[in-house]
Amino acid sequence: MTTLLALDTATEACSVALLHDGRVLSHYEVAPRLHAQRLLPMIQQLLGDAGISAAALDAIAFGRGPGAFTGVRIAIGVVQGLAFALERPVVPVSNLAVLAQRALRERGVTQVAAAIDARMDEVYWGCYQAQEGEMRLLGQEAVLPPEQAEAPRGSAGEWFGAGTGWGAFAARIALQPSGMDGSLLPHAEDLLALARFAWSRGEALPADQAQPVYLRDQVATPKAPPA
User: Fold this and answer.
1) pLDDT at 31 over 80
2) pLDDT, tens digit, for every residue of 136-155?
3) pLDDT at 112
4) CB 94 within 8 A of CB 64
5) Which of 15, 57, 102, 214 has CA 20 to 30 A from 193's CA?
6) pLDDT score recorded for residue 216
7) 45 three-class SS
């Protein structure tokens, strides 16, 4: 049986989840600015609760962004450290997809417009539709002003708004949802659910390919030196 660890620190939430012997264990807390201190102890506690060591893991899944620059880097640093040490592959998962998967799990909604507050008067944006229990991306993920956040071309039906982008900009977002939760944050339990689909499709990657996805290029690109 597959044993997977999932972790996420891309937003204010810090969470870990573990699949072992067909059972899911998870720990979730909202701990702004404490991710670096909390993440490893949370992983150790979860492994201890399951009665296994890290060597039992088949792969490690992580929230690859978009989200807070520092938070995404913390997750990738921990994941690469563990994956290299254990010689295990990694499974990167979009944080927008994780939001959508959580809305599916908790609200039963099948079309989700996920939005994370990107600061700088923009949102990280992605629209997802449930297909056989998995939230799949329609169109593309993007970072854009709220007024440009729309449903994908050709889509139909009602949308549920999920994420802090809705909490900050609901009145300005172009898409009009049938309902929303502007406080929803990604949860590693839903990241784990998406990772299980990816793992079954053979989408795991070598540890050195654990890369962040910021969407906003200039965040990760150093400025050219003055001439």
Assistant:
1) yes
2) 999 999 999 999 999 999 99
3) 98
4) yes
5) 214
6) 83
7) helix
Burial of 2 (0-12, 13-18, 19+ CB in 10 A): middle
* Cα atoms found within 13 Å of the Cα of residue 16, Cβ hemisphere only: 21
Cα–Cα distance for residue pair 119/116, rounded to 1 Å: 9
3-state helix/strand/coil string of 195-222 = HHHHHHCCCCECHHHCCCCCCCHHHHCC
Concatenated DSSP letters of 65-112 = -SS-HHHHHHHHHHHHHHHHHHT--EEEE-HHHHHHHHHHHHH--SEE
Q: Which residue has the tokens 């972790």?
A: 7
Lookup: tokens for 164? 């802090």
**How confident is the model at residue 224, as a pLDDT?**
43
- β-strands 59-63, 4-8: how paired? parallel
Which helix (H) or strand (E) element contains residue 38?
Answer: helix 35-50
